[in-house]
Amino acid sequence: MPKPAAKNPPRQDSANATGEKQRRLQREQDQKDKAKAKEEAKSKSGGEEKQKKAVQAGPREHPEPPLPEQHLQKPGVEAQMALKPQFHAPDYRGSGKLKGMVALITGGDSGIGRAVAVLYAREGADVAIVYLNSHEDAQETKRHVETEGRECLLIAGDVKDSKFCKQAVERTVQEFDRLDILVNNAAFQLHADSLEDVTDERLEETMKTNIFGYVFMARAALPHLKKGASIINTGSVTGLRGSSHLLDYSATKGAIHAFTMSLASNLIDRGIRVNAIAPGPVWTPLNPADSPADKVAKFGEDTDMKRPAQPEELSPAYVFLASPVCSSYITGIVLPITGSVGG
User: Fold this and answer.
1) 195-200 contacts: CB < 8 A, separation 24 or more?
2) Comparing C-alpha atoms, which of 111, 54, 86, 50 is closest to residue 303?
3) Which of 31, 46, 275, 300 has its CA at 20 to 30 Å from residue 261's CA atom?
4) Which residues pair with 233 in a beta bridge?
5) What confidence tens digit (pLDDT) does each residue in 307-316 have?
6) Orientation angle between helical segments 200-207 and 247-267, nearest 10 degrees
7) Which of the two residues, 7 and 185, has the higher pLDDT score?
8) 318 part of the active site
9) Would 30 be classed as within a structural domain?
10) Could you give the CA distance from residue 300 to residue 296 in angstroms, rounded to a whole number?
11) Beta bridge partners of residue 309, listed in sequence order
């Protein structure tokens, strides 16, 4: 007799349900965006001023607007992006800054998280990746970490679940016998033209993913972190300046910045550093899975550099803040990497 089909574990069912809920919320916003786009098309005038050329200040050229017009289903799969993010940082040379350490990265399957995982491995760390349900992206990240000569543990689940967060930390410690770096990076983002559009369900999804998840992971990690360990939280320029169309998301990012400074003060006597990075626009699945395709094409052009960052332009900062040999005297900061003067 054929064996009955294996059932998904309860935690994975929960993650899949979260993914479907996020896609449903996205579909509701998509309908509003289509109606608004029609109105804007009617009123759009010709003869617009030519866009200034984007700034290139690194060792290789990075894409600039116009970017591919693409709208992804949430939570967003990097493998489906028409223009793949640059995460590998081929000009970055590792020097053992994280040798023998273990890092756990939430949202590490793609975008900034993937870029950080690759550089952590290049600097000598083994990496555990927590992600929702983008299994293809997670496997690709694992492949790149292993290419750097380090081990990679994949853990699928929903950071809104405090029990899952505790289990993820415990699995990491069981696998690698230690935990030295926690990178809180998982996020949910969905724009809205008005506060009236931010339903209770949307608000809960954003708040629980972006700030509750950070608190849950940090709380679970603390019993395993020793002197010299660090926590790095991904904030946002929206948490510094606000955003008229990312009301709930911006609120969570401001909360993350405050949580970072507060936890840094709380843990300083234990020799555990806590810092945050506040990126501006970064070319990851998060934004094509939020904005309409026509807006995605212009993504990042309103920065002083006239383009979005690529993940590999942020990941060295995560190395810097994680490495005791680089930043042992730095805690409680929010480092803006925004592509604009003055952060």
Assistant:
1) 195/247, 197/29, 197/32, 198/247, 198/248
2) 54
3) 300
4) 184, 276
5) 999 999 999 9
6) 30
7) 185
8) no
9) no
10) 9
11) 282
